[in-house]
Amino acid sequence: MGGLGTKSDAMYEFHAQYGIKPQRGHGRRHDANGSVIRWCYVDPAIAKTFAAVFWRERITSHGRLGEQAMTRLPTDAHELTGFEDYGVDQKGVHVFFGFQLKDAAAAALHCNYKQLGQCIVYLQDIAQEAFRRRDPASAHQEVRETQSDFVRQLDFEVDVTGDSAALLCTTLDGHRIELQIPHDILQELQTRLRILLAEMDIRRAQRQHRQ
Q1: pLDDT value of residue 206
Q2: 48 exposed, middle or buried (CB, 10 Å; 0-12, 13-18, 19+)?
Q3: Cβ-count burial of 175 within 10 angstroms (0-12 exposed, 13-18 middle, 19+ buried)?
Q4: Which of 34, 78, 93, 143 could in theory staple to 101 by disulfide, Cβ–Cβ 3.0 to 4.6 A?
Q5: Residue 186: which of 159, 204, 207 has the closest Cα?
Q6: Are the CB atoms for 8 and 25 separated by under 8 Å?
Q7: φ, ψ for residue 47 (rounded to 5)?
Q8: CB distance 35 to 28 below 8 Å
Q9: E strands within 35-93?
Q10: Is 96 helix (H, G, I), strand (E, B) or coil?
Q11: What averages of pLDDT result for each successive group of 10 residues across the chain (211 residues)?
């Protein structure tokens, strides 16, 4: 367990919290010196929770992002140097925009508003991963030193079709926030909440142990 430090204790605390006996396997790395430890689980949900807490792998609809993500620059990639004009149709459904590239013609793109939203999320994921790699300590901060406006009231309203639900939040300073969430995103949220709550419980237990 050398090199894991306090993370080793947290891993065993994880098993105690779920009332399961730790089951480990061993192996050798082919790309670095040293050994690896494999944790084995019968329940795939617990295995996924363990991975999310300790490996901090992020899984998105665009692919996997994490410490094992490929960092080699593709040979056909072009350097971004600027942006072209953008446009939106009268109904706000379709948009176009473009990028200026070094040693290549400008790339013009068009899409609908849903695809634009997916593109924004895609770029935000990349930006967040790049920030994490520039500042590794940020990924392990237990308390972020930012001013937060906590939610004091939460409610859901399902639409008549059942295809989505409105998330209605009221913050401590009285702000009203409404988000329309599709059914498939709510299903994903249900899974991620279980992982999130598990990590929060572990951090709370670690804090109480230190106190």
Answers
A1: 82
A2: middle
A3: exposed
A4: 78
A5: 159
A6: no
A7: -60, -40
A8: yes
A9: 35-39, 58-60, 63-65, 80-83, 87-88
A10: strand
A11: 58 76 60 59 72 54 47 83 95 95 94 88 79 64 56 88 89 80 89 85 83 73
> At 156, is the secondary structure helix, strand, or coil?
strand
Identify any residues that bridge with 60 across adjacent strands, giving them in sequence order.
63
Helix (H) or strand (E) holding 155: strand 151-158
- CB atoms inside a 10 Å sphere around CB 195: 16
Q: Which two tokens stand for residue 71?
A: 């960092």
Q: Nearest 5 degrees, angle CA 138-CA 60-CA 20?
A: 75
Report the 10 Å Cβ neighbour count for 14.
22
CA–CA dist 64, 51 (Å, integer): 13
Residue 142's CB: how many other CB atoms inside 10 A?
8
Per the listing, tokens 């508003």 go with 113
Place of tokens 């990349």: 126
**Cα 90 from Cα 18, distance rounded (Å):** 54
162: its two tokens: 């059942």
